[in-house]
Specification:
With 205 residues, the chain is of the alpha+beta class. It has one domain. Helix content is 35%, strand content 25%. It has 4 helices and 7 strands. The radius of gyration is 19 Å and the shape is globular.
């Protein structure tokens, strides 16, 4: 039996002979882990300032940081807190680093959590309007899979373009914001502020 010869392009051959780039990539992923570890601690402190959630079981589960290599064929790191997942009910806030794309934060609600917290989200967008400065840059999920985090039109749309009346009518809710990786020095404050904003939206309206 004969096999086709596997060849490498000049660029591939250059990379396979250069260990430095993969070591650099691993070093960057390590820094993302460190960043997400710091964020996890800040998130845990932040939720304690919101009395609505002081007895919420979803916040009793410790934050989890995980990584992979193949989200749309690219490396990623994610932090989940809170992270309550059952077949019928979800309450999760996921912070997501995606190599070559962005960092993003995603609120996911389903079942009893959407029924309980969704009306506050509705009131928030009604109060400030979908086109206001306060609500600028929010995206709402329109895809069928709550665990897809890319911002193409089949998965997320700008909130101001959404024509739905109430988020409580959705099978599940996803709200998200993103920040480009070029703004690396701003990512920690961005995520901390957006996490705080999400908890405020869920509890104060």
């Amino acid at each position: 039996m004969s096999y086709a010869k596997v060849t490498l392009s000049p660029k591939e051959l250059e990379l396979v002979n250069n260990a430095d780039w993969i070591l650099t990539k691993n070093h960057i992923i390590g820094k993302v882990y460190d960043l997400f570890g710091a964020l996890a601690n800040q998130y845990r402190q932040e939720f304690l300032t919101h009395k609505k959630f002081e007895k919420e079981i979803a916040f009793e589960i410790a934050p989890k940081i995980s990584k992979g290599e193949q989200y749309e064929q690219l490396p990623y790191v994610m932090l989940d807190f809170p992270r309550y997942f059952t077949e019928s009910d979800i309450f999760a806030i996921r912070t997501f680093f995606w190599w070559g794309n962005h960092c993003s934060i995603h609120l996911v609600l389903k079942g009893k959590y959407l029924a309980e917290l969704g009306p506050s989200i509705d009131r928030y967008f009604e109060m400030y309007g979908k086109y206001g400065t306060e609500t600028l840059d929010w995206f709402i999920g329109v895809g069928s899979d709550p665990w897809q985090h890319y911002f193409e039109k089949d998965n997320y749309m700008p909130m101001q373009d959404w024509n739905g009346y109430s988020v409580t009518k959705l099978p599940f809710l996803k709200l998200a914001k993103k920040i480009p990786l070029q703004k690396w020095d701003d990512i920690e404050n961005f995520m901390k502020n957006q996490f705080s904003k999400i908890l405020t939206i869920l509890s104060d309206y």
